[in-house]
Design a protein that fits this description.
Pyruvate-ferredoxin Oxidoreductase, domain 3; alpha/beta; 8 helices; 6 strands; six-stranded mixed beta sheet
Length: about 200
Amino acid sequence: MDEYNVVVTGVGGQGVLFTSQVLGEAAVREGFDTKVAEIHGMAQRGGAVTCDVRIGRNIYSPTIMERTADMVIGLEPLEVLRALEYVHEGTTIVLNKAPVVPSSASLSDVKYPSMDAILIELSRISKNILAINARDIAMIAGNPAAQNVVMIGFISELGKLPMKSETLRKTIGDRNSLKYRDVNLKAFDLGVEECKRMVC
């Protein structure tokens, strides 16, 4: 593998940066050259955030070029549409079906698009789309804020990332304080199980 490019997108407060850092650190632990870059937005609650994670043997630039993403991880479904510039027909898109509707939408006539409309738009470019309700799964784990960890568990089981699932799980455990470790590891494991249920 020369390189593997992952775009992580969502809004502030969803753990976009944490997700990207876990992917990057797990890749480094397995000996890959890795670059992680926050390229759009700020990690403030409700603001759009996009990070690039580039994994390979010799990675020189931290940013992903248009139409070269191997995977897009959408923690918020509408934000995936904003990341379409990175998508090509072979891109795997994994998105969380639980929306974060901005407060501005309730104060205007602008309607948040339906999930069906979002999926139809995405399918015009890529046929490799997997959508899960990470919020419901995170609730089962014990913390709705663990939606991003559910997503990491899910993608780890797809077999598309160059890192092993156990490396990602250990990285999450090591990056969490004792207070959150058990919940996050459970969220990861539930994400793995959801992938097995959907894909296998």
